[in-house]
Design brief:
10% helix, elongated, six-stranded mixed sheet, Immunoglobulin-like
């Protein structure tokens, strides 16, 4: 029940209302008249659909990577093993979903902390077009990063929902791996 148009009161009526007296009969009649031609209601069919990764609220994960320190040569692909758990209450959509597709993302920093490559690489979680990852599900997969030039780096890994958010923005922990390219 609501009354959208302004309801005018005398100063005495308004002060009495602020002191806790109930609205006048005039207000009740005006509200009934207002509501005669207005209806707002909601219909629900079945249980509400479970939230998915197209919505940023609460997207979180636990990421485990091995090894945590890598020495490689210039021109070699960088290989890791990832174990990722969906700790949110949302279903993570697969790569084929487009918007909201969840992948493991990587930023590259120089050893002094300067950003070297933002959004360097995104790794799919499941083969092919992928499949949804349900809450509390843990998956394991290989991570294959493109080669980097000679230098000392650290790689920061975070989950990312395509065109939605990086999970770190929700307080989800990131994981760092040190990298030496010779």
């Amino acid at each position: 029940m609501f009354h959208v148009p302004a309801f005018l009161l005398s100063l005495k009526e308004f002060e009495a209302f602020l002191q806790g007296s109930s609205p006048s009969e005039r207000y009740a009649q005006a509200t009934v008249a207002q509501m005669q031609n207005q209806r707002t209601f909601f219909l629900y069919k079945g249980a509400p659909a479970q939230r998915d990764s197209r919505f940023p609220t609460g997207l979180r994960a636990i990421i485990k990577l091995s090894p945590r320190s890598i020495n490689t040569k210039v021109g070699q692909q960088i290989k890791l093993r990832a174990v990722v758990t969906n700790t949110s209450n949302s279903i993570w959509l697969p790569r084929s979903a487009g918007v909201g597709a969840v992948q493991l993302g990587c930023h590259v920093y120089e050893s002094n902390g300067a950003l070297f490559r933002n959004r360097y690489h995104w790794e799919v979680l499941t083969p092919g077009d992928g499949r949804p990852i349900i809450p509390d599900e843990t998956i394991e997969f290989d991570v294959n990063l493109p080669p980097l030039p000679r230098g000392s780096f650290f790689l920061e890994f975070d989950m990312v929902s395509n065109e939605v958010c990086w999970f770190a923005s929700n307080g989800s922990p990131t994981v760092q791996v040190s990298l030496e390219v010779m």
